[in-house]
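Whiteboard transcription, Tuesday session. T.W. wrote the structure tokens on the left side:
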């Protein structure tokens, strides 16, 4: 049985003012390439995607009750429903992930209470969020008990309240949980997606394909453009796998090269425009720009004129 990986780094994210729709799309695409099976997004992320392409890879997180209508309107893989909105489950037309924060409660006792008011057999995936200090050593028993009693697949989302989220994620994976929810980059509350993959490869001999490493590198570079997502693992990965930027596979940029007949003199790279607005040292800007270009992420954007302004809006 394969354990699916969900990345939640685009959920509840504060975007940079300079973030464009192509940036968000490429970041989400790189997460899939890095090994995530699904990317969790919320309404503000959805609004920053150029169009609802690749919807079967997205999990739409409901943050307000009225958002269930948006979930029904697009072909997402799943809709994520926090426990407080459980009354929406019967209104949703796509598979539902029910999210329950376990806190310090006994998980089986908590689920017994929840199941008395919610039909868990109508849930496609049950996400449990907690630090799992007491459960990490006995994940196989816990997961099997929940599956047998409630006939529902289990997603484990370890919190880093005791700096043990990575260990809990590895333990849950080894216990063959149905799904793991991780978070790319440095977020003190959740397990890091790239640290999980690196740990599985180095300590537990989990085989990571070269395309996964390529995806992690791309995500690390793109994350600097969209928000405050940062990872300290990019240099480690490049060194460990003897990757130079030239060897990292190029991103397919065809969706954004929409105006091939415009003279090159009127073009300016999207990356350069983004970096112009960043308050970082010139040397760092140049380094980021060069890495992006070598990764194949050298997109062009029309300069704003009266004739092109309307067309340009669709790239934002």
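and on the right, the sequence the group agreed on:
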């Amino acid at each position: 049985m394969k354990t699916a990986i969900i990345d939640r780094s685009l959920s509840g994210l504060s975007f940079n003012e300079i973030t464009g729709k192509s940036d968000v799309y490429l970041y989400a695409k790189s997460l899939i390439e890095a090994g995530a099976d699904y990317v969790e997004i919320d309404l503000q992320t959805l609004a920053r995607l150029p169009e609802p392409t690749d919807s079967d890879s997205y999990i739409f997180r409901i943050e307000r009750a009225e958002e269930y209508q948006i979930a029904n309107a697009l072909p997402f893989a799943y809709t994520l429903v926090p426990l407080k909105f459980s009354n929406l489950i019967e209104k949703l037309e796509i598979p539902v992930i029910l999210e329950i924060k376990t806190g310090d409660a006994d998980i089986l006792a908590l689920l017994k209470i929840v199941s008395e008011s919610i039909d868990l057999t109508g849930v496609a995936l049950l996400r449990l969020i907690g630090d799992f200090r007491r459960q990490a050593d006995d994940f196989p028993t816990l997961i099997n008990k929940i599956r047998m009693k409630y006939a529902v697949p289990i997603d484990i989302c370890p919190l880093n309240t005791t700096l043990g989220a990575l260990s809990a994620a590895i333990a849950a994976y080894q216990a063959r949980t149905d799904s793991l929810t991780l978070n790319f980059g440095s977020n003190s509350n959740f397990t890091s997606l790239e640290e999980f993959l690196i740990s599985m490869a180095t300590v537990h001999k989990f085989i990571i394909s070269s395309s996964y490493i390529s995806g992690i590198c791309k995500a690390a570079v793109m994350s600097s453009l969209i928000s405050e997502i940062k990872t300290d693992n990019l240099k480690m990965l490049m060194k460990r796998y003897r990757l130079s930027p030239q060897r990292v596979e190029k991103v397919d940029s065809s969706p954004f090269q929409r105006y091939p007949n415009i003279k090159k003199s009127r073009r300016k790279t999207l990356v350069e425009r983004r970096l112009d607005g960043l308050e970082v040292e010139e040397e760092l800007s140049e380094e980021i720009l060069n890495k992006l270009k070598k990764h194949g992420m050298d997109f062009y954007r029309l300069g704003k004129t009266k004739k092109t302004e309307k067309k340009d809006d669709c790239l934002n």
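Someone added at the bottom: Residues 210-226 form the longest helix (17 residues).
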